[in-house]
Amino acid sequence: MRQTRRDFLRHAxxxxxxxxxxxxxxxxxxFEDVVAKVARQQLLPDTYPETxxxxxxxxxxxxxxxxxxxxxxxxRFRNEVPDPSSVHWHGIRIDNAMDGVSGLTxxxxxxxxxxxxxxxxxxxxxYWYHAHNRSYEQVARGLRGALIxxxxxxxxxDREEVIVLEDWLLDPESGQLFDNFExxxxxxxxxxxxNFITTNGRYDLTxxxxxxxxxxxxxxxxxxxxxxPLTLSGLNGWRVAVDGMPIGQPQQIDGELILGPAQRxxxxxxxxxxEGGVAHLLRIGDDDQxxxxxxxxxxxxxxxxxxxxxxxLPPNPAANAxxxxxxxxxxxxxxxxxxxxxxxxxxxxxxxxxxxxxQAGKFWALNDVADMTDTPLADLSLNEPVRLKIENQTVxxxxxxxHGMHFRELRPDGAFGPMRDTILLAGNESREIAFTADNPGKxxxxxxxxxxAASGMTTWIRVT
Length: 464
Ligand code: C2O
Ligand code: CU
Description:
Layout: H1 5-20, E1 32-41, E2 51-56, E3 62-68, E4 72-79, E5 87-90, E6 114-120, E7 125-131, H2 135-138, E8 144-150, E9 159-168, H3 184-188, E10 196-199, E11 209-211, E12 214-221, E13 228-233, E14 235-242, E15 245-252, E16 257-259, E17 264-271, E18 278-284, E19 290-301, E20 328-336, E21 344-347, E22 350-353, H4 354-359, E23 364-366, E24 378-380, E25 384-392, E26 398-402, E27 407-410, E28 416-420, E29 422-425, E30 430-437, E31 441-447, H5 450-454, E32 458-463
Parallel strand pairs: 1-4, 3-8, 9-12, 11-19, 20-25, 24-32
Antiparallel strand pairs: 1-2, 4-6, 5-7, 7-8, 9-10, 12-17, 13-16, 13-18, 14-15, 14-17, 18-19, 20-23, 21-22, 25-30, 26-29, 26-31, 27-28, 27-30, 31-32
The chain binds CU-O-CU linkage (C2O) and copper (II) ion (CU).
């Protein structure tokens, strides 16, 4: 068909309009469904039965959501699991009403009901989504998946792989999840860690690669409580982003990389293994033995030479370090747990001894208070700069996560760390974080060892 000049002009105008209006402005983007379902999946080797899981669209990990920076995510959440639920979009600097926290930003969605999530993603990076009602159970059953926001101008790579790390506490006889989600021993110790680890839902994930190929690995620790010490073999890697946010100059990996619960890391790796060999992403076990999380058998050669140090990722908006001249000083003391010194704490306005707290299923306190109350940890005014000293007075590590805003660690020498949304503290360790309270709303601040969050380690801040 001959294209007339008039047709051409009409199309040209349309194209120009489409380019001028950000895609997020189109209100007509349809809602896609995301359905929490009970399903069965082969997690264990084939000689075992399938495992009953709860998965978004019946899958673990959940289907990846992938959008361009600045786009709008529209999902109609339908709850088909037998427990009220909601969806949290971890690490997205989001409109508070869309944050998905049952009991704080929305009512939990009853079985059979729906909730419409509709938000813009301001930052490129590696994020994830997961259940946020009784998450110590719902996340552990499988309600978790990747949310990837692409840069307009991404790095020079041959390909990328999203790596979702999960663990499962399975009965080796039946292959089914133990349903001891509220077991006091786990709550009061390191949290409910699994006895079986999967990568993208598989125990033996194998992805073929080529020598001198450059791969971006987006690694997500979606486990309920497990800390993953990671290492590479046959791969030369650089860290380029943490918790979604670019870190500036890429840092070469030598040795171990620690990923706490809910944390993410983006690596750019060059395959150095020879053809016929196998490169690995490994985890270091408790016995110090490395075991593969991903195996990359080398099949062919991508180029004759490696490319050298990668360029930094483009920075996200609001990446400036906070100006702390008039910052509000806050302090958060974390106490409790087994072998701890906590004698008592406030629960629902009442002072209870450690025994009574334990009977109520509470083992931890933040600033002497177990569980969230109607009073926030802090009432901040919009754009107020904050420094927050976190003192872990327990013998366990904790991964503290702030919703709605990224922070930076303020190191003892006064230097800022990279932007993060989850910070891992070792037992009895103190760290200071700083941020500008630039997102209005009610934001949860809690330990991402999810059984700790449920047994006392949850608070919130209000920004108005
Ligand atoms: Cu990953 Cu309160 O959440
Ligand atoms: Cu914790």
